[in-house]
Write a structure and sequence with these properties.
This protein is α/β, with parallel strands linked by helices. The chain has 18 helices and 16 strands. Helix 12 packs across helix 13 and helix 14 runs parallel beside helix 17. The structure holds 5'-O-[(L-methionyl)-sulphamoyl]adenosine (MSP).
Protein backbone atom coordinates (compact mmCIF):
# COMPACT_ATOMS: atom_id res chain seq x y z
CA UNK A 1 0.00 0.00 0.00
CA UNK A 2 1.38 3.42 -0.89
CA UNK A 3 2.26 5.80 1.92
CA UNK A 4 1.27 8.78 -0.18
CA UNK A 5 -1.94 9.05 -2.12
CA UNK A 6 -3.67 11.76 -4.16
CA UNK A 7 -7.40 12.31 -4.74
CA UNK A 8 -8.99 14.83 -7.07
CA UNK A 9 -12.49 15.95 -7.95
CA UNK A 10 -13.24 17.68 -11.23
CA UNK A 11 -12.72 21.40 -10.91
CA UNK A 12 -16.23 22.75 -11.25
CA UNK A 13 -17.36 25.38 -13.73
CA UNK A 14 -18.22 28.67 -12.13
CA UNK A 15 -21.32 29.22 -14.24
CA UNK A 16 -23.48 27.58 -11.58
CA UNK A 17 -23.55 27.15 -7.84
CA UNK A 18 -22.84 23.76 -6.27
CA UNK A 19 -25.64 21.22 -6.32
CA UNK A 20 -26.07 17.63 -5.20
CA UNK A 21 -24.13 16.28 -8.22
CA UNK A 22 -20.98 18.27 -7.43
CA UNK A 23 -21.44 17.46 -3.77
CA UNK A 24 -21.51 13.74 -4.45
CA UNK A 25 -18.10 13.61 -6.14
CA UNK A 26 -16.66 15.91 -3.49
CA UNK A 27 -18.07 13.85 -0.62
CA UNK A 28 -16.76 10.66 -2.22
CA UNK A 29 -13.27 12.17 -2.48
CA UNK A 30 -13.54 13.43 1.09
CA UNK A 31 -14.57 10.00 2.37
CA UNK A 32 -11.61 8.41 0.61
CA UNK A 33 -9.24 11.10 1.88
CA UNK A 34 -10.42 10.62 5.45
CA UNK A 35 -10.25 6.85 5.20
CA UNK A 36 -6.70 6.84 3.85
CA UNK A 37 -5.59 9.39 6.44
CA UNK A 38 -7.02 7.19 9.18
CA UNK A 39 -4.94 4.35 7.76
CA UNK A 40 -1.83 6.42 8.33
CA UNK A 41 -1.27 7.52 4.74
CA UNK A 42 -0.23 10.98 3.66
CA UNK A 43 -3.10 12.24 1.55
CA UNK A 44 -3.30 15.16 -0.83
CA UNK A 45 -6.88 16.02 -1.71
CA UNK A 46 -7.49 18.67 -4.36
CA UNK A 47 -10.66 20.35 -5.55
CA UNK A 48 -11.31 23.75 -7.09
CA UNK A 49 -12.94 25.73 -9.88
CA UNK A 50 -12.61 25.87 -13.66
CA UNK A 51 -12.98 29.50 -14.60
CA UNK A 52 -12.07 30.13 -18.25
CA UNK A 53 -13.83 29.48 -21.55
CA UNK A 54 -16.91 30.44 -23.56
CA UNK A 55 -19.34 29.15 -21.02
CA UNK A 56 -18.07 31.36 -18.20
CA UNK A 57 -17.59 34.38 -20.47
CA UNK A 58 -21.20 34.02 -21.63
CA UNK A 59 -22.54 33.62 -18.08
CA UNK A 60 -20.66 36.73 -16.93
CA UNK A 61 -21.87 38.61 -19.96
CA UNK A 62 -25.46 37.78 -19.14
CA UNK A 63 -24.96 39.29 -15.70
CA UNK A 64 -23.20 42.25 -17.28
CA UNK A 65 -20.07 41.80 -15.19
CA UNK A 66 -16.41 41.13 -15.80
CA UNK A 67 -15.64 37.38 -16.04
CA UNK A 68 -13.02 37.54 -13.27
CA UNK A 69 -15.41 39.30 -10.91
CA UNK A 70 -18.04 36.73 -11.76
CA UNK A 71 -15.60 33.84 -11.27
CA UNK A 72 -14.44 35.27 -7.92
CA UNK A 73 -18.01 35.28 -6.71
CA UNK A 74 -19.01 31.74 -7.71
CA UNK A 75 -15.63 30.24 -6.89
CA UNK A 76 -16.02 31.75 -3.41
CA UNK A 77 -19.39 30.04 -3.09
CA UNK A 78 -17.87 26.66 -3.99
CA UNK A 79 -15.06 27.16 -1.52
CA UNK A 80 -17.30 28.21 1.34
CA UNK A 81 -19.84 25.48 0.57
CA UNK A 82 -17.16 22.84 0.88
CA UNK A 83 -15.92 24.41 4.10
CA UNK A 84 -19.43 24.44 5.53
CA UNK A 85 -19.85 20.84 4.45
CA UNK A 86 -16.70 19.78 6.33
CA UNK A 87 -14.82 18.80 3.16
CA UNK A 88 -11.21 18.14 4.12
CA UNK A 89 -9.49 19.22 0.89
CA UNK A 90 -5.83 20.15 1.31
CA UNK A 91 -5.92 22.82 -1.36
CA UNK A 92 -8.47 24.66 -3.48
CA UNK A 93 -7.28 25.51 -6.97
CA UNK A 94 -8.61 28.20 -9.29
CA UNK A 95 -7.55 28.17 -12.93
CA UNK A 96 -7.18 31.95 -12.70
CA UNK A 97 -4.39 31.53 -10.10
CA UNK A 98 -1.01 32.77 -11.35
CA UNK A 99 0.87 29.56 -10.61
CA UNK A 100 -1.66 27.62 -12.66
CA UNK A 101 -1.42 30.02 -15.61
CA UNK A 102 2.40 29.75 -15.56
CA UNK A 103 2.23 25.97 -15.45
CA UNK A 104 -0.19 25.82 -18.40
CA UNK A 105 2.00 28.15 -20.44
CA UNK A 106 5.11 26.08 -19.70
CA UNK A 107 3.38 22.90 -20.83
CA UNK A 108 1.99 24.56 -23.97
CA UNK A 109 5.46 25.81 -24.88
CA UNK A 110 7.01 22.42 -24.27
CA UNK A 111 4.48 20.58 -26.43
CA UNK A 112 4.74 23.28 -29.11
CA UNK A 113 8.54 23.04 -29.14
CA UNK A 114 8.38 19.28 -29.51
CA UNK A 115 6.29 19.69 -32.67
CA UNK A 116 3.02 18.26 -31.35
CA UNK A 117 1.13 21.55 -31.77
CA UNK A 118 0.53 23.03 -35.25
CA UNK A 119 -1.52 25.82 -36.80
CA UNK A 120 -4.43 25.01 -39.10
CA UNK A 121 -8.10 25.42 -39.90
CA UNK A 122 -10.99 23.32 -38.68
CA UNK A 123 -14.76 23.39 -38.74
CA UNK A 124 -16.85 21.33 -36.36
CA UNK A 125 -19.91 21.08 -34.13
CA UNK A 126 -19.22 22.64 -30.77
CA UNK A 127 -21.26 22.26 -27.56
CA UNK A 128 -20.59 25.21 -25.28
CA UNK A 129 -22.14 23.31 -22.33
CA UNK A 130 -19.44 20.64 -22.67
CA UNK A 131 -16.85 23.02 -24.14
CA UNK A 132 -15.89 20.52 -26.82
CA UNK A 133 -16.42 19.53 -30.45
CA UNK A 134 -18.66 16.57 -31.17
CA UNK A 135 -18.39 14.04 -33.98
CA UNK A 136 -21.76 13.30 -35.65
CA UNK A 137 -21.78 9.77 -34.28
CA UNK A 138 -21.56 11.09 -30.71
CA UNK A 139 -24.73 13.19 -31.09
CA UNK A 140 -28.25 11.94 -30.38
CA UNK A 141 -30.78 13.25 -32.92
CA UNK A 142 -28.20 15.88 -33.78
CA UNK A 143 -28.08 17.08 -30.15
CA UNK A 144 -25.52 16.89 -27.37
CA UNK A 145 -26.53 13.85 -25.28
CA UNK A 146 -25.82 15.74 -22.06
CA UNK A 147 -27.24 19.18 -22.65
CA UNK A 148 -29.92 18.20 -25.16
CA UNK A 149 -29.01 21.24 -27.26
CA UNK A 150 -27.81 21.44 -30.86
CA UNK A 151 -24.11 22.18 -31.08
CA UNK A 152 -22.99 25.26 -32.94
CA UNK A 153 -20.94 25.06 -36.15
CA UNK A 154 -17.57 26.71 -35.60
CA UNK A 155 -14.91 27.14 -38.26
CA UNK A 156 -11.75 29.11 -37.68
CA UNK A 157 -7.96 29.07 -37.77
CA UNK A 158 -6.53 27.60 -34.61
CA UNK A 159 -3.75 25.61 -33.02
CA UNK A 160 -4.10 21.86 -32.88
CA UNK A 161 -2.57 19.20 -30.68
CA UNK A 162 -1.55 16.01 -32.47
CA UNK A 163 -3.47 13.75 -30.13
CA UNK A 164 -3.27 10.89 -32.61
CA UNK A 165 0.49 10.63 -32.06
CA UNK A 166 -0.25 9.15 -28.62
CA UNK A 167 -3.24 7.00 -29.47
CA UNK A 168 -1.30 3.73 -29.72
CA UNK A 169 0.64 4.35 -26.51
CA UNK A 170 -2.59 5.12 -24.64
CA UNK A 171 -4.34 2.06 -26.03
CA UNK A 172 -1.44 -0.11 -24.91
CA UNK A 173 -1.42 1.46 -21.46
CA UNK A 174 -5.13 0.78 -20.98
CA UNK A 175 -4.74 -2.78 -22.13
CA UNK A 176 -1.72 -3.38 -19.90
CA UNK A 177 -3.30 -1.71 -16.85
CA UNK A 178 -6.78 -3.12 -16.52
CA UNK A 179 -7.63 -0.86 -13.54
CA UNK A 180 -6.56 2.39 -15.22
CA UNK A 181 -10.21 3.25 -15.89
CA UNK A 182 -13.01 1.82 -13.80
CA UNK A 183 -15.74 0.57 -13.67
CA UNK A 184 -15.07 -1.66 -16.65
CA UNK A 185 -18.01 -0.30 -18.69
CA UNK A 186 -16.31 3.08 -18.95
CA UNK A 187 -13.00 1.48 -19.81
CA UNK A 188 -14.73 -0.30 -22.69
CA UNK A 189 -16.31 2.96 -23.80
CA UNK A 190 -12.84 4.51 -23.98
CA UNK A 191 -11.39 1.51 -25.80
CA UNK A 192 -14.24 1.99 -28.30
CA UNK A 193 -13.22 5.63 -28.82
CA UNK A 194 -9.61 4.60 -29.29
CA UNK A 195 -10.48 2.05 -31.98
CA UNK A 196 -11.44 4.94 -34.27
CA UNK A 197 -8.67 7.27 -35.48
CA UNK A 198 -8.32 10.17 -33.02
CA UNK A 199 -8.80 13.58 -34.52
CA UNK A 200 -6.33 16.28 -33.54
CA UNK A 201 -7.49 18.41 -30.64
CA UNK A 202 -8.13 22.10 -31.19
CA UNK A 203 -6.36 23.74 -28.27
CA UNK A 204 -6.84 27.45 -28.92
CA UNK A 205 -9.50 30.12 -29.35
CA UNK A 206 -8.80 33.36 -31.24
CA UNK A 207 -8.94 36.34 -28.91
CA UNK A 208 -11.09 38.07 -31.52
CA UNK A 209 -13.88 35.68 -30.46
CA UNK A 210 -12.97 34.82 -26.87
CA UNK A 211 -10.42 36.61 -24.77
CA UNK A 212 -11.25 35.01 -21.41
CA UNK A 213 -8.48 32.44 -21.11
CA UNK A 214 -4.77 31.80 -20.71
CA UNK A 215 -2.76 33.36 -23.52
CA UNK A 216 -0.77 30.97 -25.72
CA UNK A 217 2.91 31.62 -24.97
CA UNK A 218 3.75 31.35 -28.67
CA UNK A 219 0.90 33.46 -30.12
CA UNK A 220 -0.64 36.37 -28.23
CA UNK A 221 -3.64 36.45 -30.58
CA UNK A 222 -4.94 33.24 -29.03
CA UNK A 223 -6.00 31.89 -25.67
CA UNK A 224 -5.81 28.27 -24.57
CA UNK A 225 -8.77 25.91 -25.00
CA UNK A 226 -10.46 25.52 -21.62
CA UNK A 227 -10.07 21.74 -21.27
CA UNK A 228 -6.33 21.84 -22.02
CA UNK A 229 -6.07 24.52 -19.33
CA UNK A 230 -8.40 22.80 -16.81
CA UNK A 231 -6.94 19.29 -16.96
CA UNK A 232 -3.51 20.63 -16.09
CA UNK A 233 -4.87 21.71 -12.68
CA UNK A 234 -4.25 18.18 -11.44
CA UNK A 235 -0.52 18.76 -11.84
CA UNK A 236 -0.26 22.51 -11.31
CA UNK A 237 -2.07 22.30 -7.95
CA UNK A 238 -0.05 19.31 -6.81
CA UNK A 239 3.35 20.72 -7.81
CA UNK A 240 2.44 24.12 -6.38
CA UNK A 241 1.83 22.63 -2.93
CA UNK A 242 4.14 19.61 -2.86
CA UNK A 243 7.05 20.90 -4.92
CA UNK A 244 9.57 18.27 -5.99
CA UNK A 245 7.85 15.62 -3.81
CA UNK A 246 4.87 15.73 -6.16
CA UNK A 247 5.93 12.57 -7.97
CA UNK A 248 5.32 10.35 -4.96
CA UNK A 249 1.69 11.52 -4.84
CA UNK A 250 1.29 11.51 -8.60
CA UNK A 251 2.31 7.84 -8.73
CA UNK A 252 -0.83 7.09 -6.67
CA UNK A 253 -3.19 9.64 -8.16
CA UNK A 254 -6.92 8.93 -8.28
CA UNK A 255 -9.20 11.11 -10.38
CA UNK A 256 -12.89 10.98 -9.49
CA UNK A 257 -15.39 12.14 -12.11
CA UNK A 258 -18.91 11.45 -13.40
CA UNK A 259 -19.54 9.89 -16.79
CA UNK A 260 -20.13 13.27 -18.49
CA UNK A 261 -16.43 14.01 -18.72
CA UNK A 262 -14.90 10.63 -19.51
CA UNK A 263 -13.48 11.58 -22.91
CA UNK A 264 -11.51 14.63 -21.71
CA UNK A 265 -10.13 12.61 -18.76
CA UNK A 266 -9.50 9.32 -20.48
CA UNK A 267 -8.35 10.55 -23.90
CA UNK A 268 -7.35 14.24 -23.90
CA UNK A 269 -5.63 14.17 -20.51
CA UNK A 270 -3.42 11.07 -20.91
CA UNK A 271 -2.34 12.14 -24.39
CA UNK A 272 -1.46 15.62 -23.07
CA UNK A 273 0.55 13.97 -20.27
CA UNK A 274 2.41 11.77 -22.73
CA UNK A 275 3.17 14.70 -25.03
CA UNK A 276 4.36 16.86 -22.12
CA UNK A 277 6.61 14.07 -20.82
CA UNK A 278 4.77 13.37 -17.56
CA UNK A 279 3.94 9.90 -16.31
CA UNK A 280 0.28 8.98 -16.67
CA UNK A 281 -2.03 9.35 -13.69
CA UNK A 282 -2.65 6.17 -11.75
CA UNK A 283 -6.43 5.69 -11.91
CA UNK A 284 -9.62 7.23 -13.20
CA UNK A 285 -12.82 6.36 -11.31
CA UNK A 286 -16.09 7.14 -13.04
CA UNK A 287 -19.45 7.36 -11.35
CA UNK A 288 -22.98 7.66 -12.71
CA UNK A 289 -25.51 10.48 -12.58
CA UNK A 290 -27.80 11.63 -9.87
CA UNK A 291 -31.08 12.01 -11.66
CA UNK A 292 -34.31 13.76 -10.82
CA UNK A 293 -36.95 11.53 -12.30
CA UNK A 294 -35.71 10.62 -15.76
CA UNK A 295 -33.27 13.52 -16.24
CA UNK A 296 -29.79 14.22 -15.00
CA UNK A 297 -29.74 16.77 -12.19
CA UNK A 298 -28.11 19.83 -13.70
CA UNK A 299 -28.24 23.56 -13.68
CA UNK A 300 -29.17 23.70 -17.36
CA UNK A 301 -32.22 21.50 -16.71
CA UNK A 302 -33.05 23.54 -13.59
CA UNK A 303 -33.83 20.61 -11.29
CA UNK A 304 -31.18 20.81 -8.61
CA UNK A 305 -30.92 20.02 -4.90
CA UNK A 306 -28.63 22.36 -2.98
CA UNK A 307 -26.22 20.95 -0.39
CA UNK A 308 -26.51 23.85 2.04
CA UNK A 309 -30.28 23.60 2.04
CA UNK A 310 -30.09 19.87 2.79
CA UNK A 311 -27.61 20.54 5.56
CA UNK A 312 -29.87 23.22 7.02
CA UNK A 313 -32.94 21.00 6.96
CA UNK A 314 -31.56 17.60 7.89
CA UNK A 315 -27.96 18.02 9.05
CA UNK A 316 -24.83 17.39 7.05
CA UNK A 317 -24.22 13.77 7.92
CA UNK A 318 -27.72 12.63 7.03
CA UNK A 319 -27.11 14.03 3.55
CA UNK A 320 -23.64 12.51 3.26
CA UNK A 321 -24.99 9.17 4.44
CA UNK A 322 -27.74 9.21 1.85
CA UNK A 323 -25.41 10.12 -1.02
CA UNK A 324 -22.95 7.37 -0.15
CA UNK A 325 -25.56 4.76 0.77
CA UNK A 326 -28.00 5.21 -2.08
CA UNK A 327 -25.66 5.27 -5.07
CA UNK A 328 -23.60 2.29 -6.16
CA UNK A 329 -20.48 4.03 -7.48
CA UNK A 330 -20.56 3.69 -11.25
CA UNK A 331 -24.36 3.39 -11.56
CA UNK A 332 -27.00 6.10 -11.85
CA UNK A 333 -29.28 6.89 -8.94
CA UNK A 334 -32.43 8.94 -8.49
CA UNK A 335 -32.93 11.48 -5.80
CA UNK A 336 -36.32 11.75 -4.17
CA UNK A 337 -37.06 13.40 -0.88
CA UNK A 338 -39.22 10.42 0.12
CA UNK A 339 -36.31 8.02 -0.37
CA UNK A 340 -34.08 10.36 1.60
CA UNK A 341 -36.51 10.59 4.51
CA UNK A 342 -37.17 6.86 4.59
CA UNK A 343 -33.46 6.10 4.73
CA UNK A 344 -32.79 8.80 7.28
CA UNK A 345 -35.50 7.64 9.65
CA UNK A 346 -34.76 3.93 9.30
CA UNK A 347 -30.96 3.84 9.34
CA UNK A 348 -30.03 6.98 11.25
CA UNK A 349 -32.88 7.95 13.56
CA UNK A 350 -34.09 4.47 14.45
CA UNK A 351 -30.74 2.82 13.75
CA UNK A 352 -27.55 4.44 14.95
CA UNK A 353 -29.18 7.36 16.78
CA UNK A 354 -31.58 5.21 18.74
CA UNK A 355 -28.89 2.68 19.64
CA UNK A 356 -26.55 5.35 20.98
CA UNK A 357 -29.25 7.01 23.01
CA UNK A 358 -30.53 3.72 24.51
CA UNK A 359 -27.06 2.61 25.56
CA UNK A 360 -26.09 5.95 27.05
CA UNK A 361 -29.48 6.34 28.74
CA UNK A 362 -29.08 2.96 30.49
CA UNK A 363 -25.49 3.75 31.40
CA UNK A 364 -26.65 6.98 33.00
CA UNK A 365 -29.76 5.55 34.63
CA UNK A 366 -28.12 2.50 36.21
CA UNK A 367 -24.56 3.67 36.83
CA UNK A 368 -24.71 7.47 36.75
CA UNK A 369 -22.76 7.35 33.51
CA UNK A 370 -19.80 5.42 35.00
CA UNK A 371 -18.58 2.28 33.30
CA UNK A 372 -18.46 -0.91 35.36
CA UNK A 373 -15.52 -3.35 35.12
CA UNK A 374 -15.46 -6.26 32.70
CA UNK A 375 -16.03 -9.57 34.49
CA UNK A 376 -13.71 -11.70 32.38
CA UNK A 377 -12.70 -12.45 28.79
CA UNK A 378 -15.38 -12.07 26.13
CA UNK A 379 -17.40 -15.22 25.51
CA UNK A 380 -20.61 -16.34 23.81
CA UNK A 381 -22.84 -13.48 22.65
CA UNK A 382 -20.32 -10.89 23.89
CA UNK A 383 -17.65 -12.39 21.70
CA UNK A 384 -20.08 -12.66 18.77
CA UNK A 385 -20.72 -8.91 19.02
CA UNK A 386 -17.02 -8.17 18.83
CA UNK A 387 -16.76 -10.51 15.85
CA UNK A 388 -19.57 -8.62 14.12
CA UNK A 389 -17.49 -5.45 14.39
CA UNK A 390 -14.28 -7.16 13.30
CA UNK A 391 -16.11 -8.44 10.21
CA UNK A 392 -17.64 -5.01 9.56
CA UNK A 393 -14.24 -3.38 9.80
CA UNK A 394 -12.55 -5.85 7.46
CA UNK A 395 -15.33 -5.74 4.92
CA UNK A 396 -15.85 -1.99 5.01
CA UNK A 397 -12.13 -1.40 4.48
CA UNK A 398 -12.12 -3.71 1.48
CA UNK A 399 -15.24 -2.03 0.08
CA UNK A 400 -13.72 1.41 0.56
CA UNK A 401 -10.60 0.33 -1.32
CA UNK A 402 -12.96 -0.77 -4.10
CA UNK A 403 -15.07 2.44 -3.90
CA UNK A 404 -18.17 0.43 -2.96
CA UNK A 405 -19.32 2.97 -0.39
CA UNK A 406 -22.87 1.65 -0.22
CA UNK A 407 -21.62 -1.86 0.61
CA UNK A 408 -19.19 -0.54 3.22
CA UNK A 409 -22.08 1.23 4.96
CA UNK A 410 -24.29 -1.81 4.62
CA UNK A 411 -21.66 -3.88 6.42
CA UNK A 412 -21.21 -1.32 9.18
CA UNK A 413 -24.97 -1.24 9.66
CA UNK A 414 -24.94 -5.04 10.05
CA UNK A 415 -22.71 -4.57 13.09
CA UNK A 416 -25.15 -1.96 14.44
CA UNK A 417 -28.00 -4.43 13.89
CA UNK A 418 -25.94 -6.97 15.85
CA UNK A 419 -25.89 -4.45 18.73
CA UNK A 420 -29.67 -4.14 18.63
CA UNK A 421 -29.94 -7.91 18.69
CA UNK A 422 -27.47 -8.08 21.57
CA UNK A 423 -29.56 -5.61 23.59
CA UNK A 424 -32.68 -7.70 22.99
CA UNK A 425 -30.94 -10.97 23.85
CA UNK A 426 -29.06 -9.78 26.93
CA UNK A 427 -32.03 -7.60 28.07
CA UNK A 428 -30.08 -5.44 30.54
CA UNK A 429 -33.27 -3.58 31.54
CA UNK A 430 -34.77 -6.89 32.72
CA UNK A 431 -31.59 -8.17 34.37
CA UNK A 432 -31.31 -4.97 36.36
CA UNK A 433 -34.35 -6.02 38.35
CA UNK A 434 -32.34 -8.96 39.75
CA UNK A 435 -29.79 -7.47 42.12
CA UNK A 436 -27.39 -10.41 41.76
CA UNK A 437 -27.13 -9.61 38.02
CA UNK A 438 -26.19 -5.94 38.28
CA UNK A 439 -22.47 -6.53 37.75
CA UNK A 440 -23.39 -8.34 34.54
CA UNK A 441 -25.57 -5.42 33.45
CA UNK A 442 -22.51 -3.21 33.99
CA UNK A 443 -20.47 -5.51 31.78
CA UNK A 444 -23.11 -5.59 29.04
CA UNK A 445 -23.23 -1.79 28.95
CA UNK A 446 -19.44 -1.60 28.97
CA UNK A 447 -19.41 -3.84 25.91
CA UNK A 448 -22.06 -1.72 24.23
CA UNK A 449 -20.06 1.46 24.89
CA UNK A 450 -17.09 -0.29 23.34
CA UNK A 451 -19.28 -1.13 20.36
CA UNK A 452 -20.33 2.52 20.01
CA UNK A 453 -16.73 3.59 20.08
CA UNK A 454 -15.93 1.16 17.31
CA UNK A 455 -18.97 2.38 15.40
CA UNK A 456 -17.64 5.95 15.67
CA UNK A 457 -14.33 4.85 14.15
CA UNK A 458 -15.99 2.97 11.33
CA UNK A 459 -18.33 5.79 10.31
CA UNK A 460 -15.75 8.58 10.55
CA UNK A 461 -14.80 8.72 6.86
CA UNK A 462 -18.47 8.82 5.87
CA UNK A 463 -19.96 10.92 8.69
CA UNK A 464 -17.21 12.86 10.43
CA UNK A 465 -19.49 15.11 12.49
CA UNK A 466 -21.46 12.22 13.91
CA UNK A 467 -18.28 10.28 14.68
CA UNK A 468 -17.02 13.28 16.58
CA UNK A 469 -20.26 13.75 18.50
CA UNK A 470 -20.37 10.07 19.40
CA UNK A 471 -16.77 10.21 20.59
CA UNK A 472 -17.64 13.25 22.71
CA UNK A 473 -20.65 11.54 24.25
CA UNK A 474 -18.42 8.59 25.12
CA UNK A 475 -15.86 11.06 26.42
CA UNK A 476 -13.05 9.46 24.47
CA UNK A 477 -10.11 11.08 22.85
CA UNK A 478 -11.26 12.00 19.34
CA UNK A 479 -7.93 10.56 18.17
CA UNK A 480 -9.47 7.18 18.96
CA UNK A 481 -10.98 7.37 15.50
CA UNK A 482 -7.63 6.72 13.82
CA UNK A 483 -5.67 3.48 13.63
CA UNK A 484 -4.86 1.26 15.45
CA UNK A 485 -8.20 -0.06 16.59
CA UNK A 486 -8.73 0.05 20.36
CA UNK A 487 -8.86 -3.34 22.09
CA UNK A 488 -12.29 -4.51 23.22
CA UNK A 489 -12.70 -4.48 27.00
CA UNK A 490 -9.57 -2.33 27.42
CA UNK A 491 -10.85 0.87 25.85
CA UNK A 492 -12.39 2.31 28.96
CA UNK A 493 -11.12 2.00 32.51
CA UNK A 494 -13.76 1.14 35.08
CA UNK A 495 -15.26 4.35 36.41
CA UNK A 496 -14.87 6.17 33.05
CA UNK A 497 -17.79 8.53 32.75
CA UNK A 498 -19.86 8.96 29.62
CA UNK A 499 -22.17 11.87 28.86
CA UNK A 500 -25.95 11.97 28.85
CA UNK A 501 -27.38 10.94 25.49
CA UNK A 502 -28.14 13.57 22.88
CA UNK A 503 -30.31 13.05 19.85
CA UNK A 504 -28.00 12.44 16.91
CA UNK A 505 -30.67 12.31 14.21
CA UNK A 506 -34.06 13.81 15.07
CA UNK A 507 -36.72 11.80 13.28
CA UNK A 508 -38.11 13.55 10.21
CA UNK A 509 -41.89 13.74 10.49
CA UNK A 510 -43.60 13.60 7.15
CA UNK A 511 -46.50 15.99 6.68
CA UNK A 512 -49.36 14.26 4.92
N1 LIG B 1 -15.08 22.00 -15.47
C1 LIG B 1 -15.32 20.70 -15.93
C2 LIG B 1 -14.38 19.70 -15.28
C3 LIG B 1 -12.93 20.00 -15.47
S1 LIG B 1 -11.93 18.87 -14.62
C4 LIG B 1 -10.42 19.11 -15.21
C5 LIG B 1 -16.74 20.29 -15.58
N2 LIG B 1 -17.34 20.98 -14.61
S2 LIG B 1 -18.84 20.74 -14.07
O1 LIG B 1 -19.11 21.83 -13.15
O2 LIG B 1 -19.73 20.58 -15.14
O3 LIG B 1 -18.76 19.46 -13.21
C6 LIG B 1 -19.00 18.17 -13.74
C7 LIG B 1 -18.88 17.20 -12.61
O4 LIG B 1 -19.79 17.54 -11.53
C8 LIG B 1 -19.24 15.76 -12.92
O5 LIG B 1 -18.20 15.06 -13.57
C9 LIG B 1 -19.53 15.25 -11.53
O6 LIG B 1 -18.35 15.12 -10.81
C10 LIG B 1 -20.34 16.38 -10.95
N3 LIG B 1 -21.74 16.32 -11.32
C11 LIG B 1 -22.48 17.36 -11.82
N4 LIG B 1 -23.76 16.92 -12.00
C12 LIG B 1 -23.88 15.63 -11.63
C13 LIG B 1 -24.96 14.73 -11.53
N5 LIG B 1 -26.20 15.05 -11.87
N6 LIG B 1 -24.68 13.50 -11.05
C14 LIG B 1 -23.44 13.14 -10.63
N7 LIG B 1 -22.40 13.97 -10.70
C15 LIG B 1 -22.57 15.21 -11.26
O7 LIG B 1 -17.25 19.37 -16.19
Amino acid sequence: MPEKIYFTTPIYYVNAEPHLGHTYTTVVADTLARFHRSMGREVFFLTGTDEHGDKIAQAADLKGIDPKEYADHISGIFRSTWETCGISNDHFIRTTDDYHRNFVQEVLQKVYDSGDIYFGEYGGKYCTGCERFYADRELVDGKCPDHETEPEWIKEENYFFRMGNYQEALLRHIEDNPDFISPVGYKNEVLGLLREPLEDLCISRPKSRLSWGIELPFDSNYVCYVWFDALLNYLSGLTHVKGPAYGEFWAHSHHLIAKDIVKPHAVFWPTILLAAGFPLYDKLHVHGYWNMGESKMSKSLGNVIRPLEMRERFGLDGFRYFLLRDMAFGMDSSFTEDAFITRFNADLSNGLGNLASRVLAMQNKYFEGRLAPMLGPLEGGDLALREAFTTAEEKSKAHLEGLAFHLALEDIWKALAACDKYVVETAPFKLWKDESQRARVGEILHILCDALRHAARLIEPFMPETAQRLAEMLDTDPGCLAEPAPVWGETFSPGHEVAKPQTLFPRIEVRS
